[in-house]
Amino acid sequence: MSRHLKQSSRRRFLVGATGVMGAAGVVGVATPFVCSLAPNEKAKQVRAPIKVDVSKIEVGAMVTVAWNGLPIWILKRDKQSLLSLKKHEALLADPDSIDSIQPKNTKNTFRSVRSDIAVYIGLCTHLGCTPKYRPELSPIDLGENWHGGFFCPCHGSKFDLAGRVYKNVPAPTNLEIPPYRFIDNDLLEIGYREESEGV
Ligand code: FES
């Protein structure tokens, strides 16, 4: 079996595993009793940062957690995926994330604080549908130049593994990135903001 096919098969397997570890990986989602709180306290609780242990996420897999009422995707990318990001930049609408929304510390080629871990708000920037994680290489429906990414079934928008939107699709900008930081090598804190953070 060629290296390409092996990698493609592995990625297909990991699509099946997507989401399985989501709940187990969350260290401290503070949601109980939210219903009994006053509205501004409730809003604070929902916006409160959450911690996620990323050490259990397999390379190539993606998990979904909830923060601020939003689905947050956490994807562990392999080296091959990171290398592929340069290959299709001419096909992207905003390859340098000039017009897209992300924290300052993720405005780089990989759109992430750490290259292997990507964090996105899992909503299409067109009308808010949930795109599907499509990590396969060159599947028939997405074409030869597809190196993995996200496909929105509502109106066909496509995003690469850095959440960057392709040209000529309805979504106007790249997938949004929530504020986050690493507390240590394994622990991600989503919702953390520096005083000066603009997002
Ligand atoms: S909502 Fe995703 S393409 Fe329209």
UniProtKB/TrEMBL annotation:
It is a single-pass membrane protein. InterPro entries: Rieske_2Fe-2S (IPR017941), Rieske_2Fe-2S_sf (IPR036922), Rieske_Fe-S_prot (IPR014349), Rieske_Fe-S_prot_C (IPR005805), TAT_signal (IPR006311), TAT_signal_bac_arc (IPR019546), Ubiq_cytC_Rdtase_Fe-S_su_TAT (IPR019470), Ubiquinol_cyt_c_Rdtase_Fe-S-su (IPR006317). It catalyses: a quinol + 2 Fe(III)-[cytochrome c](out) = a quinone + 2 Fe(II)-[cytochrome c](out) + 2 H(+)(out). The main subunits of complex b-c1 are: cytochrome b, cytochrome c1 and the Rieske protein. Keywords: 2Fe-2S, Cell membrane, Disulfide bond, Electron transport, Iron, Iron-sulfur, Membrane, Metal-binding, Signal, Translocase, Transmembrane, Transmembrane helix, Transport. It comes from Marinomonas balearica. One of its GO terms (cellular component) is plasma membrane. It is found in: Cell membrane. Binds 1 [2Fe-2S] cluster per subunit. The chain crosses the membrane at residues 12-34. It is an enzyme of class 7 (translocase). PANTHER family: CYTOCHROME B-C1 COMPLEX SUBUNIT RIESKE, MITOCHONDRIAL (PTHR10134). This is Ubiquinol-cytochrome c reductase iron-sulfur subunit. Its EC number is 7.1.1.8. The Rieske protein is a high potential 2Fe-2S protein.
